[in-house]
Amino acid sequence: MLTAETIHRLQEVARAIRRDIIEMVYRANSGHIGGSLGAADLLTCLYFHVMRHRPSQPDWADRDRFILSKGHCSPVLYATLARCGYFPAEDLQQFRRTGSHLQGHPYAPKTPGVDVSTGTLGLGISTGGGMALAAKLRGQHHRVFILCGDGEIQEGQAWEAAMFANKYKLDNIIGFVDRNYLQTDGYSEDIMPLDPLRPKWEAFGWRTLQIDGHDLRAIIGAIDEVPSHPGKPTMIILRTVKGKGVSFMENEAMWHGTPPNQDQYERAMQELADA
Amino acid sequence: MPEWKHTRQGYADALIELARRDDRILVLDSDVAKATKTCDFEVVFPDRFFNCGVQEGNMMCVAAGLALEGYIPFATTFATFAAFRAGDMVRNAIAYPKLNVKIGATHAGITTGGDGASHQCNEDIAVMRALPNMTVLVPGDYEESRQATLAAASMYGPVYLRFGRDVYPVVEELHDGFAIGKAKLLRRGDDLTIVTTGILVSEGLAAAETLEGEGIATRVLHLPTVKPLDEEALLRAARETRGFVTVEEHNILGGLGEAVAALVSLHHPRPVARVGVRDVFGESGQASELLDLYHLRAAHIVSSAHAVLAPALR
């Protein structure tokens, strides 16, 4: 049962992660803020409530896996992992710096808690397909969570992977599309239309839901009912706001990959402190 | 006359051998199982064979996912699809994180024949050897292909295995002492070194025979591993002979020849002539015709040997 107290605790974690994201990208003077802020609620739910994992044992065989297929949103993943205790929070200050284990895009061999190296778009569902298949072959019961961007699934390989997961009945995959309608060059439906998105996934054989990607109860509830649908992979379309939590960054494509200046940084931190 | 056999059959036979003794071995194919011969594996191990359909990029990443979970997947397709169609996935999902994925690439080189240039991949070695962490194996006949496949499974890390489409001469001299990263000394000689990789080894040996008849003592070093290069064997040849002719069924750009030239030019400069496809796309035809047409025969190796030795003989 999700108590109001639990939800409040998760909201506070998400707010702290958002502050970390702003701090990291400001310090590195590069990185992807908008999509990271937009995914903070999902990662909070996953790592602080849903997933079975052990920060002290990152390679625990029965842990749930997570793939940040939209690898450019590494700040949200790194901040989440640090707050879980996979590595010290001070490491976040070294994001994108030489000698750091925090590469611009997730690199599993270097960073504790990163399951899969990503960066080039459209690959995560495929890799997750391999991991989910491996779990089936071994009779393991963990789940493979995959987060894709909406612009990302313009890549044809996302749909190759969709076919594969359907063929092998990989019901241990729970995918998410971060549906914020914005990509690097602008509004997704101008750049390369994706709508109607839900029937596309359904036509590829996936059980598909669409929820508010900032409603923590809705996210956790949607994941909780997955086991009652055996034989099918699940795709949860998260309706999200890019830049969520910082008023002047919300729904602005320019915040896809632009670091904040000092004034913007201070205003963003102020907003997230007062929230 | 020697026996002729498919190198890709050596790959497929080795996969079955491997799977019998190691339950981590899995085979993926991309709707070319009948052509790559992995269909034989499917018959024996149907539950460990996964046909990914016409999805080479997806297949490479599925293999990456399986490797992350401790399996040893052999992702199988034609060379041009492995190196180019799925090149990004091989680079980013396999080579960069150094995953234990083996890539079985058949239909490499001009002898792919009738399918024409779209399928005759003469550029894959260049791409694969430029990838950090990647081991590149280019065996010369059926048996060496079998042994290369077994060896690939016994090392940790990504391996690119290159096979042809056609039948190729069985070369007895190749059948002993396969080790990744080691050259095979097939023939001794101190005037000239012919360096071969892949199925043109038989042409290299024939050329050495001809040169011997002319009084040119010709060493033949066969390199079934293009990366990592056996620097020791090559530098010894640089010290002990007067020049090199490299022989590969691949573009002269980016392949074995450039690797050898780069090595010896720094440590012990010697002339290096490269026999290979001369930076052109091929055309349809019989494999044997194409070897003539693209100057990949023993006679062309002999001419190149003369050119290499000409300054010394003058």
How does this model look, in words?
The complex is a heterodimer of chains A (275) and B (314). Chain A is an alpha/beta fold and 275 residues long. Chain A has one domain (4-246, 261-274): Rossmann fold (3-Layer(aba) Sandwich), CATH 3.40.50. Chain A has 9 helices and 7 strands, in the order ααβααβαβββααβαβα. Chain A has helices at residues 4-28, 34-50, 74-84, 124-138, 156-167, 188-191, 197-203, 216-224, 262-274; strands at residues 65-68, 144-149, 173-179, 182-183, 186-187, 207-212, 234-239. Chain A has a 5-stranded parallel sheet, sandwiched between helices. Chain A has a two-stranded antiparallel ribbon with strand order 4-5. In chain A, a hairpin with a 2-residue loop joins strand 4 (182-183) and strand 5 (186-187). In chain B, helix 9 crosses helix 13 (298-313). Chain B contains 13 helices and 14 strands. Chain B has helices at residues 7-21, 33-36, 39-44, 56-68, 79-85, 87-95, 124-129, 142-154, 201-213, 231-240, 256-267, 287-293, 298-313; strands at 4-6, 25-29, 49-51, 72-78, 102-106, 135-137, 159-162, 167-169, 184-187, 192-196, 218-222, 225-227, 244-251, 272-277. In chain B, strand 10 (192-196), helix 9 and strand 11 form a beta-alpha-beta unit. The longest helix of chain B is centred in the C-terminal third of the chain and has 16 residues, at 298-313. Chain B has 2 domains: 4-169, Rossmann fold, CATH 3.40.50.970; 176-313, Rossmann fold (3-Layer(aba) Sandwich). Chain B has 314 residues and is of the alpha/beta class.
From the N-terminal CA to the C-terminal CA of chain B, the straight-line distance is 38 Å
Number of domains of chain A: 1
Q: What is the string of SSEs of chain A from the N terminus onward? A: HHEHHEHEEEHHEHEH
> Helicity level of chain A, as a percent range?
40-55%
Oligomer: heterodimer
Distance between the termini of chain A: 25 Å
